Each structure stands twice: as C-alpha cells, then as structure tokens.
Amino acid sequence: MHFDIWAFYAGPDQVMTVTSALASLFGLLLIFWNKVVGTFFKVFGLSQKKDAPAPAAVEPPNKVV
Q1: Cα(first)–Cα(last) distance of the chain, in Å?
Q2: Model confidence pLDDT, tens digit, residues 16-48
Q3: For FRET with 51, which of 19, 23, 33, 64 sits at 20 to 30 Å CA-CA?
C-alpha cells in the first residue's frame, strides 16, 4: 500500500473549515462590492458616464384650444 498517498487525504473536518473561510471572504466581498468597483474605477481612471449622451430637452406639449 502507498502511504505517501495518505498525505493528499482531506477529510470533512479540513474541507469544511477551508470552504467556510472562503465563503466568509466571498460574502464580505459581496457586502462591499459597490465600494470595490468604485475604487477600481477611480484607480484606473475609468468612468461609466463619460460616453453617455446628453439628455434630450423636454418641451411642453402645444395646447390647441
């Protein structure tokens, strides 16, 4: 029997700890996602509103009496 293979065994007690930590980090990232994306755009100088067209002027409708 190859005992060196046993070094790769990961039981539920190890796997659940690692997946719980990863889920916690992912949840924290999702909580602050808006701040993370905003910081990313500021750091790299990107703007989503730069290419947006100007809003059209709204004219009141003509009333026929």
Answers
A1: 99
A2: 999 999 999 999 999 999 998 999 888 988 765
A3: 33
